[in-house]
Design a protein that fits this description.
Blueprint (H helix, E strand, L loop, with lengths): L1 H10 L10 E2 H20 L6 H20 L1 E4 L3 E7 L2 E6 L3 E4 L5 E6 L3 E4 L3 E4 L5 E12 L2 H6 L4 H17 L18 H16 L4 E13 L1 H40 L7 H16 L16
Antiparallel strand pairs: 1-5, 2-5, 3-4, 3-6, 7-9, 8-9, 9-10
Helix pairs in contact: 2-3, 5-6, 7-8
Main location: membrane
Protein name: Membrane protein
Membrane topology: Single-pass membrane protein
Length: 301
């Protein structure tokens, strides 16, 4: 990430500044006046000298063309980058009908939020397991000068950097940790998502783009190991369930023996105590219902 930030700082040469665009409504009145003058010259063609009519009509037409070429419209969250013979002159973000000199070049740019879902890519996690990942990113242009002049195609640049950032974050953590002692991609969505956003912001600064929100839309083991990992998860779940069951059964047996001894219900020697513990453990830990056997004789028969 340090190299990316250093490169971004080295390439950051452009900076957005406010242009000197004008309101187009005043110039619209000038255009209307030029059209009225042209129509008046045509209607008075029989009463005026030909030279005056031609000069008036030509002047009104040229004025109308001069004014008409300079108009442009801006909607909310749109901007126009204005250049003069390749030299950046500023960015106009004022909405409505706008006007600038006809020899100024105008490039319209959207500064609205863009929502993009990346392609699924295969990444090796921290432990080398192949996993599939895809991310959803909400981004927008914050500096129009950087977006147009510091990168060749800012939209393609965003796509490439999203894939690179997903690969970086995916290789930084394991997919899962069955002992719940590490930060994982599957178990720590908020932390990993925050790191992905920070990584993307650092990479996209050079293009004048910021990231408002991001997260993973797809996260799974690759097909070649998905079956093996599923069996491993199932085995871990079975072991965890058995561990809990045995711990509970041991506690119940201890409680039963303690209460039998405390209330003098029955006195058992070591052999009979071991047999009773074995029977209780079978009853408590067995997966099937047990069938009781009634002892009609003495305890030692």
């Amino acid at each position: 990430m340090t190299d990316v930030r250093g490169a971004a700082h080295a390439l950051r040469q452009s900076s957005e500044r406010v242009s000197h665009g004008r309101s187009g409504y005043a110039m619209l009145a000038v255009l209307f006046a030029a059209l009225v003058l042209a129509v008046a010259a045509i209607t008075q063609i029989d009463r005026m000298p030909d030279a005056l009519v031609v000069s008036t009509l030509l002047g009104a037409t040229l004025l109308a063309l001069f004014v008409g070429i300079g108009f442009y419209l801006l909607q909310p969250n749109q901007a126009v980058v204005i250049t003069l013979f390749g030299d950046y002159r500023g960015t106009d973000r004022t909405t409505g009908l706008r006007w600038t000199w006809p020899w100024m070049s105008k490039k319209k740019l959207s500064v609205r939020a863009n929502n993009m879902i990346s392609e699924r890519i295969k990444v090796n996690d921290l432990r080398g397991n192949p996993i599939e990942m895809a991310a959803q990113v909400v981004w927008r242009v914050t500096d129009t000068a950087q977006a147009l002049f510091d990168v060749d195609d800012y939209k393609a640049f965003v796509n490439v950097q999203i894939e690179a950032a997903v690969r970086t974050i995916g290789s930084r953590y394991p997919y899962d940790d069955f002992e719940h002692q590490e930060v994982t991609l599957r178990g720590n969505h908020e932390q990993v998502g925050s790191e992905l956003r920070a990584e993307l912001i650092a990479r996209l600064t050079v293009a004048g783009i910021t990231v408002d929100e991001c997260g993973f839309t797809h996260l799974a083991y690759a097909q070649e190991i998905a079956g093996a990992m599923l069996r491993r998860q199932q085995a871990q779940a079975v072991v965890a369930a058995r561990t809990t069951l045995v711990e509970g059964a041991v506690g119940m047996v201890e409680m039963a023996l303690a209460q039998l001894s405390a209330k003098n219900v029955v006195e058992l020697d070591d052999e009979r105590r071991a047999a009773m513990v074995s029977n209780l453990m079978v009853v408590l830990c067995g997966e099937r219902d047990t069938q009781p056997i009634v002892n009609a004789g003495s305890l030692y028969q």
